[in-house]
Amino acid sequence: MFHCEMICLSVWPAWLHGDSKKVLYPTDSYGQFCGQKGTSNVKKPILFYFNILKCTNPAVLINLQCPTTQMCVSKCPDKFATYTEMQLQHKLNKSNWEYYRQFCKPDFNNLDKPISQVLRDEDCPSMIVPSRPCKDEKPLSLEFQLIIYFQNLNKCDMGDYQVQDARTDSLIFSLDVFICALCLSMCYRGLLLSLAVSMVFILLLRFTAGLLLWTTIITVILLLAYGMWYCSMKLSQLRHKPGSDVAIVEVSLQTDLQVYLQLTQTWIIFLVSLGVTEVSILLMLIFLRRRVRVAIALLREASKAIGHMMSTLFFPVVTFLLLTVCISYWLMTAIHLASSGNPIYKVVSPDVSCPYANSTCKPETFNRTNISKLALCQGSQCLFAFYGGETSYHRYLFLLQLSNLLVFLWLVNFSLALEQCTLAGTFASYYWAKRKPQDIPPCPLFSSFSRAIRYHTGSLAFGALILSVVQLVRIILEYLEQKLKGVDNSLSRFIMHCLKCCFWCLEKLLRYMSHNAYIMVAIYGKNFCTSAREAFFLIMRNVVRVAVLDRVTDFLLFLGKVLIAGGVGVVAFFFFTSKIPVIQEEVPNLNYYWVPLLTVVIGAYLIAHGFFNVYAICVDTLFLCFCDDLERNDGSSEKPFLMSPELHRILGKSSQVH
């Protein structure tokens, strides 16, 4: 009931006062819709950025505002031109100036104004380049606009603005779309390959779990050793190369990764990282080899359980759909809350030390003030920031956004808790079956899901709420830290870091305890607090086993994910660099192949993580059942162990296992 009240609290005022058009549709720097009927922009449906490169500034993520003038225009530029050339040639060719003027501020027509002041006040853009609107039938993202920006900048001649004919432009556009579609299809193929490899890996785990896991460990060790040797070779090659001793900090952020690969410091970092990882794995194998055997036995038992209930591998799809609904709900509600009220304008300055930065302003009178003339505020502009007001509703708008965020976190954590409880109940029915698989109940996944929805919704919601409150506090602390960045107070920064550290540890502890509590809820059907207490004391009584086996098992699963993502990444690298002769003709000519390569690697890792997360829940459930089995039973004929003979043999039990 409280859950529904929280949702209504954040949704009702948002949908009553909000207007999603204010966020979804283009809005210029004056807060006016582009293409809106009844306004001067009715024939100007396209939003034009004076300098779109300023949108790549990381500060945009904080203020959610691109620090450049944005104007509504009727069409995008189709030629290259600069304001300097226009000012010099406007008397000779007025038609060119009239064309350029449509991309300036509507009230600007003073060509006698110095160029530096025009560019400082952003009365006109410094240049225009051929571009295409995002509202075509094939929408273009901001990243793709930047790519087109650089492409056109490279193709155009600075002193000449010839326009390609329609057929040539159409051909180039079709070629661009074809190349992008081909790159996307290659990325999809890589993701499908990772899906197939993950499925094959899981199937092999059922039959050859020990062999496959030891092969994975040895393969990772050999790959790390090869990486260390390769880094050493590169270091020896760069040692006498001029300029290779420059520090990475001095190079700053570069889009071309080849710049970093020419620095010795980069390869030293790679070498140290690989060496530490290699030593850690070897030490674990030497001193924890018995625990590794037990972890492999647990993984082998998990493979058998999943093999008898293959439908569990696809339950994350249900969780994905629930998370999609949660994100859609939160996003639409946040949009309506953010769009409530009248347009508010803020001073945007390229220098963060400007005393008037982020203060409220009026665009009609801003140019008559002395703000932009101050030394620290040169280049400041009065730009549209957000929608707000002075009513009691708008004063509590921030609290409504926080409540909406809390509900979002609650729903997300509830969806994840439902997945954990459902899968834990399914795998517990496998462990406690005396004869496997004969005694496994029919449709175990559906039965477990039904029990979780019917009997355990309150427990799952309560556990999710506790975790969500801690996550909300962490987000508020991050927000306060951003607000206090300009305050030179060491004590406040120290307290803030301590609070962030404490709540980070608290969230990790609650997440771990909730995970085990959901497993106990699924096994015994008790409430959340009772299950959390029983899980805690069960873990404490087996703290050595838990501390070692849990980490070892997670590490083995992590190696499997890295092996799959790395293998798919290697194949994608050879493909995008045209090093596979069989399909070399299908590869598009890419200037930056690392973008689709990273997309494939990250996507492959996420897909593998989705499959292996089911394995992790299965292992945790079987391990808690195993610990409880040791305490409840003694291996006699009256109280036989229900663990598998292999687990019994590895743990050194002498009693007979049935």
TrEMBL record:
Keyword Mitochondrion assigned: no
Keywords, comma-separated and alphabetical: Antiport, Cell membrane, Glycoprotein, Membrane, Transmembrane, Transmembrane helix, Transport
Membrane-crossing segments per the record: 171-204, 211-229, 267-288, 309-332, 407-432, 453-477, 555-578, 590-612
Heme in keyword set: no
Catalytic activity: choline(out) + n H(+)(in) = choline(in) + n H(+)(out)
Membrane topology: Multi-pass membrane protein
Source organism superkingdom: Eukaryota
Gene Ontology MF, one: antiporter activity
GO cellular component: plasma membrane
Subcellular location: Cell membrane
Family: Belongs to the CTL (choline transporter-like) family.
Stated role: Choline/H+ antiporter. Choline transporter.
Name of the featured protein: Choline transporter-like protein
The encoding gene: LOC115571985
